[in-house]
Amino acid sequence: MKPSTSHTEARLLRRLQWRLALGFAIAFLVFDVIVVGLTYVVLDYHIIGEAKAAIEAVWEREPPESLIDGNETLGRPANSHPAAVRSDDVPPVVTWLFNKYGHHNTGPTSLYGLPVPVNAILPDQALLQQMPHSHQALWAVVKSRQYRVLVGSRPIWKGSTYLGAEQSVYSMGRLGQLMGGLIVVDLELSALAVALIIVLAFWLSGRALVPIRQALRRQRDFIQDVSHELRTPLTIIKSSLELALGESERSEVDNAVRNTLSEVDYVTRMMGDLAMLARIDSGATLVEPEVFDLVQLAQEVVQGLTPLASQRGVEVTFRREGDETNAVGDPVQIRQLLLILLDNALKYNHPGGTASLTVTMKPTVVGLTVENTGPGIPPEDLPYVFDRFYRSRSTNRLAPGSGLGLAIADWVVKAHKGHIRLSSEPGHGTRVMVEWPRHWERT
């Protein structure tokens, strides 16, 4: 048995496996980074949106006009704040009022969810300086220690007169610390996931590379088999020509020429078989189904092989079962199938033996059976008879061959959506059975 892969091929494929596995791992890490980044952005967006909604809800309960007294000044008492509506007296939103000079009334100094005093955040001078020049609320995210708060600042106008501003804060909690913890957890899970992905990807890539291994093996075996098959006829041709050059008798020269022509015919047939297999592998050979007279085609093939059978001392017979004669298929390829099977039945036979072809016409399937009385095939060779270039040692003694015929026959049958079976017993001949649907369409 030939080795599955060479050392160089194995090393190349192993390197490719590692590249695929690492590629999957890197792709996962990139995807993970993108997901974590998007999670942070989306979470931050929703938290800021929630904070804005809370501040705007307070502002809706306190329209700017309600903050102006009759003297056109900010009229809220110093220590009152309508937003302090929690039972524990720690409001979720703290609002301070500022006059047009930037001075503010003292408001609540504690904010729910913020352990630092509010006066560490308010007033936000950057926003406050923009209020006299704005008629819209402005927002800023301020960080204090590990905590983030949203500051909203809105100007208070009466007509064209700027009276002051109102600044509100809402704690968004320890989002940074939360995301930091999330990243740590994600890194731990990612490390485990990367290890599992590498192992799984290495295993899956190994399975995915099986066809490549087989292709490399077939390519290597093909080159070895072709070189082996060509070596013998070329050696015979060379020897025959050398013998012809050294012979003076016409009979010996004629024998050398005949031997040369025989080997040239063998090489030509093998090249034709190789060309067809190449077309099969590339998908260039197609089946063109049509209705044809299978019985007549089989009779023509048998009649054409009768002279060859007589030369080999083998009797060839034909028999049909069923009244129908027509079948659907590619007549050119079916003819080639019959030639391959009958030629083998004649070639691997004994003088005085028989070779028979039976065509069976059933309602739904067409059957071909080719039998001979040759030496048979050993059981250990039967699983490989349809492999390219495979020839049983017992058949090598009877006749030369390339080992491509049954591989082509197998393809023809499968292309016709059928199946082919071969049974043999040493000393009791060989039987090949073929069936394909009587009615089908090429897809």
CATH homology group of the largest domain: Histidine kinase-like ATPase, C-terminal domain
- Kindly identify the CATH topology of the largest domain: Heat Shock Protein 90
Shape: rod-shaped
Please identify, by name, the CATH architecture of the largest domain.
Answer: 2-Layer Sandwich
> In angstroms, what separates the terminal alpha carbons?
37 Å
Rounded average pLDDT: 79
Report a brief summary of the structure:
The chain contains 9 helices and 11 strands. It is α+β, with helices and mostly antiparallel strands and 443 residues long.
Please outline the helices and strands:
Elements: H1 7-61, E1 93-99, H2 125-128, E2 138-144, E3 147-158, E4 161-171, H3 175-208, H4 210-246, H5 250-282, E5 290-293, H6 294-312, E6 315-321, E7 326-329, H7 331-347, E8 354-361, E9 365-372, H8 393-396, H9 405-415, E10 419-424, E11 430-437
Helix pairs in contact: 1-3, 4-5, 5-9, 6-7, 7-9
Structure description:
- This protein folds into three domains: 62-173, Beta-Lactamase (2-Layer Sandwich), CATH 3.30.450; 210-285, Helix Hairpins, CATH 1.10.287; 286-443, Heat Shock Protein 90 (2-Layer Sandwich).
- 48% of the residues lie in helices and 19% in strands.
- The chain contains nine helices and eleven strands.
- It has helices at 7-61, 125-128, 175-208, 210-246, 250-282, 294-312, 331-347, 393-396, 405-415; strands at 93-99, 138-144, 147-158, 161-171, 290-293, 315-321, 326-329, 354-361, 365-372, 419-424, 430-437.
- A five-stranded mixed β-sheet has the order 6-8-9-11-10, covered by helices on one side. A four-stranded antiparallel β-sheet has the order 1-4-3-2. A two-stranded antiparallel ribbon has the order 5-7.
- A hairpin with a 2-residue loop joins β3 (147-158) and β4 (161-171).
- The longest helix is centred in the N-terminal third of the chain and has 55 residues, at 7-61.
- The radius of gyration is 46 Å and the shape is rod-shaped.
- The relative contact order is 0.08.
- The model is unreliable at 77-87 (pLDDT under 50).
